[in-house]
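Q:
My hope is that you can spare some time for a protein that puzzles me. I hope you can help me see how the letters and the tokens relate. Thank you; the sequence and its tokens follow:
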Amino acid sequence: MGSGATYHGGLAWAPNPGWGELTLNDEVVELVGRGNKLIVKVGVSVIESVEVMSEQVAKSRIGAVLVFGVLGLGAKASRDRGTLLIHLKNGQTGFFTIADYSEHQLLAKLAPWIHALGIFVGPPPGKSHSPAVSSVADELVKLAA
């Protein structure tokens, strides 16, 4: 895929999170870290569906806020983070994030792979929706409570 991705968990055989280069082809989805260390490898034949979503994430701009004030540069500091959920036929779901991709950009990047392999896009049939990816605002509300 040509971009860095982070695996957050969800697959029993790859319990540890990791960051690396995400590759998707007609046989496997794999994430390889530094030194060619394999973090996650999933055979395409066991994928039931994929979901793509994104959220805006605030960048840390403490220095800019201190210099320019709250309404200065600090208010404009955000970026997209795409989330790729890979649902397997055995019920497990692998969670990946790809920085600097909106949902539409990530879906456009994945579309040739999805269509070539006939992978269903959306939650697995029979599930109403996937666990929601909480936003920073949602986490702050929970923390305040």
Observations:
- The mean pLDDT is 82.
- DSSP finds three helices and eight strands in the chain.
- Strands lie at 4-9, 18-24, 28-32, 38-43, 47-58, 78-88, 93-99, 120-121.
- The CA atoms of residues 68 and 74 lie 8 Å apart.
